[in-house]
Every structure is written in structure tokens, then in C-alpha cells.
Design a protein that fits this description.
- Keywords: Membrane, Transmembrane, Transmembrane helix.
- The protein has helices at about 10-15, 20-45.
- It is mostly helical.
- The protein has one domain (about 5-45).
Length: about 45
């Protein structure tokens, strides 16, 4: 037997609340770390 009632959720309801901003921090610190690493390699090798 098929359930006739379908529940439709909004995007926020489907996510069940807040999403952390972890990706932003990973991108910022990762990019900064790579820049520092390349600067150190450039200074030590050159």
C-alpha cells in the first residue's frame, strides 16, 4: 500500500539547522600554508 501523504521539506529543514563554516577555514589556512611553504622553498633554494 502506498502512503498518500508526501512530506515536502525546504532546504533548511532538510539540512536540519546550521552548517559549520569549516570549508572556509580549510581553504584559508590551506592556501596560506601553501604560500608560506613556497616562500620558504624559494628563499632556501634561491
Amino acid at each position: 500500500m502506498v502512503d498518500e501523504r508526501e512530506e515536502h521539506l525546504t532546504t533548511t529543514e532538510a539540512r536540519s539547522g546550521q552548517t559549520p563554516h569549516v570549508a572556509r577555514h580549510v581553504l584559508i589556512f590551506g592556501t596560506g600554508g601553501i604560500i608560506i611553504l613556497f616562500l620558504l622553498l624559494f628563499l632556501l633554494a634561491g
